[in-house]
Amino acid sequence: MRAYWQLTLSQLRIFIRNRQVLFWTLAFPIFLMVMLGSFLGNGNGLSISIGIVDQDNTILSKELSKILAENEVVHLESNLSEDKALTQVKEGDLQLVVVIPNGYETRMKDNANEEQFELPVYYNETNIAVSQVGLTLVNGVVDGISKEKADYKPSIVTDTRGVEALNLSYIDFLVPGILAMMIMSNNMNGVAGQIAAWRERGILRRMQGTTLKASTFIAAQITARLMLNGLQALIVLAVAHLVFGVSVNGSWVSLVSFVILGTLAFMAIGFIIAGIAKTPESAAPIAGFLSFPMLFLGGVFFPVRDMPDFLQPIINVIPISHLSHALREIMNVGTPFMELGFEALILGCWIIGAFIVASYTFKWE
Amino acid sequence: MEAMQETMIEVKNLVKKYGTFTAVNSIGFSVQKGEIFGLLGPNGAGKSTTLEMMVGLRKPDEGTAIIGGFDISREMKKVKEVIGIQLQSTTLFELLTVEEILRLYASFYRVNVSIPDLIEEMVLTEKTKSRIKTLSGGQKQRLAIALALVHDPWIIFLDEPTTGLDPQARRTLWDIVLKLKEKGKTTVLTTHYMDEAHVLCDRIAIMDQGKLIALDTPTNLVKSLQSDSAVEFQFEGEFLTGELEMIDGVKQVGKRKDTYVLYTDDIQMTLINLIHMTTKKDIKLTDLQTRTSTLEDVFIHMTGRSLREE
Q: Of A258-262, B38-42, B306-310, which range is least confident?
C-alpha cells in the first residue's frame, strides 16, 4: 500500500515538474476549442450564403428576399448580376443563387393564370449537404408564399421544439468532443510514450529487481493519470464555461464516471502500444496512427452521422465515438448514466479486452 | 575464522543461450558471507548475464543458484528481499529528488534503513533535495548503490559500478564498497578494470566467452603467472617470437597489437639481454617499459587476448 501511494505521488510529481508536457497537453485542447468555437461560432454550425438576383425589382420580389433574410442561418447577398452570382456559386462563395425573373409581381397578382411560375435556383453540386439545406429553406419560403396566395389552410403542421429548447450550438457539441480527445491522446499517447521510454532507460527493469508487484505499479499509474485527467478536464470545462458559457447539464457523477472509463480504456491501449513498440521513438508514431483516425471518426469535431456509411461499422466499434457521445449526452442533454449503459458497456469491453492483451504484450525490458 | 564461514551464494551450472550463441556456459562458484567477489572479464564475456540471472532478471536455461538460502528458480520473491542490485546503465526518474527516489524505492520493501543516514553514507547529503538530473556521474552511481541498500540487504550486486567514472569518483566508490564489507555485507561485482578487482575483491572469477577460466584471490592469480614482471616495447622491423623466448629469464611472450610483452621472473637479466640482442641486430626499440605483472597479464596469459579491446 505504501508503494502504491509513493508511486502515485512520484508520478504526479513527474507530471507537475514536466512543465512543458503539462502545458502542451492542456494548451492544445484549449486552443483547439477556442479556435473552433470562435470560428464556427455560436450559430448552428451552419450558415448559408444565398445570392438573390432580383430582375423583377418590385415590392413583392423584395418581400421574398426579406423573408429569406429573416432566417438566421441565411446570409443574403443581393444586388448581384446573374453572371456574377453564378460565378460565385461555382467558386463556392455562395451556396445558392435564387433568380427572381421579370414579371414576378405581375404574375403573382394575376390570380386568373393557373400556369406555374418558375423561380430558377442554382446550386453547386460539390457542396451538396449545405446546398440541400439551402434548397429546403428556399422551398419552404416559396411554399409559404404560394400557400398564402392560395389561401391554403394546412390540416397538419409540425411542431419543432425538441433540441431548440436546450438552445444548443456548435460549441456545446465541441466541448465534450475536446474532452474525449484530451482523454484519448493524454492516456493512449502518454502511456505508450512514457512506458516505452522507461523501459528503454532501464527504469522498469530496475523496479523489476525489487519486490514491487507489477499490479501495484499499474494501479499507481492509473490513479495518477486519473487525477491528472480529472484536473485537466476541469480546466477545459472551466475555460469552456468562462469563454463560451457552456455548462454541464447532466450529473457530475455520470461525467466523472465516463472520464474514468475513457481514461482506463485508452491507458490500456497505451500499454499495448508500449508493449509492441520496440523503441520509444516508434511508440509515438504507432499511437499517432491510432489516434489520428479516431480523432476524425470518433465524433470529436463533427457528428458521427455525417460520416459515410461504409465507415459506420468502424465508428460503432472504436472507443472514442462512445466516449464522446456519452460525454455529449451527459453535458448537453443531461442523460443519466443508466441510459448510457450501452456506451459504458462498449468502453468496459475495451478496458477488459485491452488490459488482457496488454498483459500478454507487456515487457519489462 | 574458517569455521565461521557461511555460504551466501551457491551458483550451480548456470547456462544461458541466445539462439545458438551460448552467453553463459555452465558457470558455478560459491561466495562466503562478508566477501567481495569479483567477476572479471572483457565486454561480452557473460559477466552481466551471469549477474542478471542471479538477481532474477533473466531466466537461466539450465542450472540454478541459491542466494541467501533461497533458490532463484523457486523463491525469487524471497531472494529479492535479501539482495540489493545496481544495474549497468540504469537511468532513474530524472525529475525526482535524491530523497524522493530513495523514499520511493524504500516503499517497495517491508524493511527499511534510515534514509538520511543512507544519504550521509553515500556522500550525497548536500544533494538531498536536488533533482537527479543535476547529479554528476559519480553521484548518480552512488545514488544507484544507495537504492540497492534501502532495505538493508545481505547481499549486494553491483554491475560495473565504476565504468565511465573519473578517478576521484571511482575512489569514493571503492571506499563505499569497502565500508559495506566492514558492515558484514556480501558483495558481488562485475568489472573490466583489473586495478579495481585487485583493490576491492577478496576473490576473483575470470570469465571469457561465457566460461569461468580461473577463480582465486588476486594475489594467487598473479602468482600463478610464475613471473612477477613484464617488459613492454615496440620496435621497427621484423622479429621472431622464438628469438624473444630464447632471452634469459623470459617465461612467456605476449603480443598485443604492435606491443610485445615479455613476462619474466628476472627483469634485470631480461632487460640486459634484450638490449644486447637488439643492438646487435640493429633494431630500434621504442616505448620500452617495465612493470610488475597484473591481473591483466593473467588474463592475457590465459586467453591470449586483452581485457579491453582497444
A: B306-310
Looking at residue A164, its pLDDT comes to: 41
Contacts of A10 in chain B (CB under 8 A): 93, 96, 100-101, 104
Note whether B100 contacts A3, CB cutoff 8 Å.
Answer: no
Contacts of B275 (CB under 8 A, 6+ apart): B285
Per-residue model confidence as pLDDT tens digits over A287-336: 889 888 888 888 888 887 777 888 888 888 899 999 999 999 898 888 88
Give the pLDDT of residue B96.
94
Q: What is the pTM of this model?
A: 0.74
Structural domains of chain A, count? 2
CATH class of B226-292: alpha beta
A184 and A91 within one domain: no
Give me the domain span that covers residue A341.
Answer: 2-40+169-361
Specify the pLDDT at position A267. 93
**B96/A13 CB distance under 8 A:** yes
Per cent of chain A over pLDDT 70 is 92
**Topology (CATH level 3) of domain B2-217:** Rossmann fold (3.40.50)
Interface contact B15, partner A, CB < 8 A: no
Residues of chain A in contact with residue B77, where contact means CB-CB under 8 angstroms, are: 211
Please say if the pLDDT value at position B115 is more than 60: yes
Same domain, A104 and A242: no
Q: Which of A126, A144, A165 is the last residue of a domain?
A: A165
For residue A43, pLDDT beyond 60: no
pLDDT tens digits, A56-86: 888 888 888 888 777 766 777 777 788 888 8
- With a CB-CB cutoff of 8 Å, which residues 166-195 of chain B face chain A? none
Q: Is A247 on the interface with B (CB under 8 A)?
A: no
Same domain, A116 and A243: no
Same domain, A161 and A179: no
What are the Cα distances from residue B164, in Å, to A173, A198, B55, B87? 57, 22, 23, 14
Rounded average pLDDT over A127-156: 76
Q: Testing the interface with A: which of B87, B95, B131 to mutate, by most A Cβ within 10 A?
A: B95
Among B87, B101, B107, the residue with its CB nearest the CB of A3 is: B107
Residues 107-146 (B) with a CB less than 8 A from some CB of A: 107-110, 131
Q: Which residues in chain A have Cβ-Cβ distances shorter than 8 Å to B93? A: 10, 14, 203
pLDDT confidence bin for B294, thresholds 50/70/90: confident
Return the domain boundaries, chain B.
2-217, 226-292
Same domain, A28 and A52: no
